[in-house]
Amino acid sequence: MTATTDQDAALRIAAGRKPFVEPLRLGERLKEIRLANQWTLEDVSQRTGLARSTLSKIENDQTSPTFTAVQKLINGLDIDLPQLLSPPRVQPRTMGRRDLTRRGDGERHPTPTYEHELLSCELAQKRMIPFKTIVRARDFNEFSEWVRHDGEEFLMVLDGEIRLYTEYYEPLTLACGDSIYFDSAMGHALVSISNDDAVVLSVCTR
């Protein structure tokens, strides 16, 4: 293990966070987002504060981004985690596919307010992004800005109770078993109003 890896691990332990797991084909997805916006590596470097050499290594799968690096990408590129984790667009579509995710086997991606578990990680070219989220936030003020990403989102509460804040509507309380479908480009945020962290299942369209 390199000194840098040791240092990153120590920082994560000190911060009380779980180790970050690299999302499936994140390098390809980052390059796709950059090219779609006609950005150079220097443009992305200035937006995120990450060195061009680091961005190049991420895009070419030569290094695994740390949790801090992923946060800088999300904030600097003005995208949400599900948007960054979307598999790169590849054509043509493959028919007759399936992808099983056993309980607890999804890819985990912690943030300060949520802990996402990405499901069906092995299936490329998905038109939907399913993920389970542990809602750790307890107050809307924990969010520095609205969460928003392309497409639409279906959300169902699996455990506990949440309050859904949206940009154009009054806050809405959802209990276990309640569900909602909404435009995810509209600013939104979830907070748990249970004694314990709430758990929700979300499916986002691309």
Automatic annotation (TrEMBL):
Residues 30-84 form the HTH cro/C1-type domain. Residues 96-113 have a biased composition (Basic and acidic residues). Pfam families: Cupin_2, HTH_3. Keywords: DNA-binding. Residues 85-113 are annotated as: Disordered. InterPro entries: Cro/C1-type_HTH, Cupin_2, Lambda_DNA-bd_dom_sf, RmlC-like_jellyroll, RmlC_Cupin_sf, TransReg_Diox_bact_type. It comes from the Bacteria. CDD domains: cupin_XRE_C, HTH_XRE. This is XRE family transcriptional regulator.
